[in-house]
């Protein structure tokens, strides 16, 4: 089991690429570990889970995550944790976290900043060959 929970968010939509924009709890059955992450890196991590691609990604100052594909399971490595899960469970957990992050960022800043940030994120995903529609993800996770 893997679960991400938003602890705090500081910079609204304008802070999409700030390395430590958010504090997130990474929870397993046995432990909890805090990490700092930017929304941009969280969206990149989500893209790797959607496309079921292994990766090693620095997500914030002193925080990196590695996804290792091993047959039907994946290992999510975040020092000192090594968590066995599936791409589907990882994607579901990240979607839950993103839903909370989007709501919190919408509380801090308006539609103009959101649209600019989502466009910027979409451009960065394409530069990293991670093909998915960030705007559609936002819509699907924030729809009433």
Summarize the model shown.
The chain has 144 residues and is of the alpha+beta class.
Task: Please explain how this structure is put together.
The protein has 144 residues and is of the alpha+beta class. It is built from four helices and seven strands, in the order βββαββββααα. It has helices at residues 39-50, 87-108, 111-127, 134-142; strands at residues 3-9, 22-27, 32-37, 55-60, 63-70, 73-78, 81-85. The strands form two sheets. It has a four-stranded antiparallel β-sheet. Helix 1 (39-50) runs antiparallel to helix 2. It is globular.
Give the total of beta strands: 7
Structural class: alpha+beta
Assign a percent range to the helix content: 40-55%
Mind summarizing the main beta sheet? Answer: 4 strands, antiparallel
Q: What is the overall pLDDT average?
A: 91
